[in-house]
Amino acid sequence: MKTAIKYLSIIFGIILLDQIVKSLLLYLITGTVPVSGNAWGIVGYPYLMAHIFDWFNIVFTWNPGTSFSLLRSLGEGAPWIIVGATGVICAMLIYYTFWRAGKNERLPLCFIIGGAIGNLIDRVRFGAVIDFIDWHIGNIHWPAFNIADMFIVIGVALYIINLTFRKK
Q: What is the pLDDT of residue 23?
């Protein structure tokens, strides 16, 4: 039980951090934190918030697709298809994490689950995910991403490392 509480706390901490930062950005742009609504009705266009370094900006943009805006071409139904698929995958990961995973697998899976649920909340609320971290070299930009995305990537990397180096 103590272990479950620890890992649930990690998941909820990631979700909370992600949602607080995204809400802060919404507040800085609109003066309010909408509970839900059409993404482009709230902030209709990409918005440069701050130029931090020559290689880093804080921007505000919506991502209606998955990673790197994949599946955008599914049209109006894309957000709901992605919500359904993400919900099923999260449920499977939660089951595996708490009932099947080895000790070394749990933290990476919690990172992935927390990040996925953070983005899932945006999709349900707005039909798109808020992205705001913009790394670039000159005019070559990595696609904008957010804190939830960072935890997903870190979780996947840790999981792969765990699989690579685990004892047989």
A: 96
The Cα–Cα gap between 123 and 74 comes to 15
The answer, yes or no, to whether residue 150 has pLDDT greater than 60, is yes
Locate 106 and state its tokens.
Answer: 């749990």
Q: Which tokens is 97 given?
A: 């994490």
How many other CB atoms are found less than 10 A from the CB of residue 161? 12
Q: What is the pLDDT of residues 92-112, one digit of tens each?
A: 999 999 999 999 999 999 999
Q: Look up the domain containing 87 and give its range.
A: 2-165
Mean pLDDT of the chain: 90
Q: In whole angstroms, what is the distance from residue 28 CA to residue 46 CA? A: 14
Tell which residue, 98, 96, 131, has the closest CA to residue 115. Answer: 131
Residues involved in catalysis: 131, 149
> How many domains is the chain built from?
1
Measure the N-to-C terminal CA separation of the chain; round to a whole number of Å. 28
